[in-house]
Design brief:
Blueprint (H helix, E strand, L loop, with lengths): L1 H31 L8 H17 L3 H8 L2 H4 L2 H32 L2 H28 L20 H5 L9 H17 L4 H25 L5 H24 L4 H6 L6 H16 L4
Helix pairs in contact: 1-2, 1-8, 1-9, 1-10, 2-10, 5-6, 5-8, 5-9, 6-8, 6-10, 8-9, 8-10, 9-10
Length: 283
């Protein structure tokens, strides 16, 4: 157990300090008014940190899975209910929250709220696509699959595509969604409230995202290395979506969904065109 704790601490220590520069970069872009490139040297450092963290924690995938399935932990109501709550907040909660924020922002003409909702939802979508492709290609078995005991070395190319969810462990999709939302919202809010983001919003969001990853391990659905890679993909998805919107302020998606509007005459025409369809009884 001492070895397990030390390795988990090592992985966390390697990754945690590398998350704060992501927020600072987004803030510096907004505050200085300079247009930075989509990818910077900081991204290379962050990617290297996640890679090292994944490799460092890989040897304890099995022992971590066994430790978390111990009956003393599995029978604790606080862990059971907590894992369910954070998992649901991540998926589908993050998408529901993001789209609701976007819709509320557009209806109330609160641009910042609409931006946070749109870019957070976009980040979840981008991260999920990358994660799904990797899941299908790498075909890693989930911890509960092998009846002889958890086997973190059970990989097979393209098995996830052909044999479904039980062989789509790497990376953790819930963790991707949680970190994508955390990264996008932190990057967006750092443009307006940098101090609040550093000491309040960021830590809370990233802490919640980490709790999602732990819940997936607790539920025996993912290995520790699945979670670290999910955090990496989600973090990059969130920061890149926000930075792309800053470096390409007139991109088509933002132009249509944030700045576009439908004239009243067009709305009336659409309503009249759809009215015969809406009057038909459901079948």
């Amino acid at each position: 157990m001492k070895s397990l704790s030390s390795r988990l601490a090592l992985a966390a220590a390697l990754i945690a300090p590398l998350l704060s520069p992501v927020v600072r970069v987004a803030s510096a872009q907004a505050d200085s008014g300079k247009v930075r490139s989509l990818f910077t040297w900081r991204d290379g450092i962050l990617a290297a940190g996640f890679a090292v963290g994944t490799i460092a924690i890989r040897p304890v995938d099995k022992s971590a899975a066994i430790a978390l399935q111990d009956s003393s932990r599995q029978h604790r109501i606080i862990f059971q209910e907590g894992s369910t709550i954070v998992r649901t907040i991540a998926v589908p909660g993050s998408v529901i929250i993001g789209t609701s924020m976007y819709a509320a922002g557009r209806l109330a003409h609160v641009d910042r709220l609409a931006e946070v909702g749109l870019h957070g939802t976009e980040a979840i979508g981008v991260g999920s696509v990358v994660a799904d492709v990797l899941k299908d290609i790498l075909g890693r078995a989930r911890p509960f699959v092998d009846t002889a005991g958890p086997n973190p070395d059970d990989w097979q190319l393209m098995r996830g595509l052909h044999r479904g969810a039980n062989y789509q462990s790497f990376p953790s999709g819930h963790t991707v969604a949680a970190f994508a939302a955390a990264a996008a919202v932190s990057s967006e809010t750092s443009r307006w409230w940098p101090t609040a983001t550093y000491f309040g919003i960021g830590p809370v969001l990233y802490g919640g995202a980490a709790a999602v990853g732990l819940s997936r391990m607790y539920n025996n659905r993912h290995w520790a290395s699945d979670v670290i890679m999910g955090a990496a993909i989600g973090t990059f998805a969130g920061t890149k979506v926000v930075r792309y919107s800053l470096t390409h302020p007139r991109n088509r998606i933002d132009r249509w969904l944030l700045h576009g509007s439908v004239p009243t005459s067009d709305l009336r025409h659409i309503t009249l065109s759809l009215s015969p369809l809406l009057s038909k009884p459901a079948r």
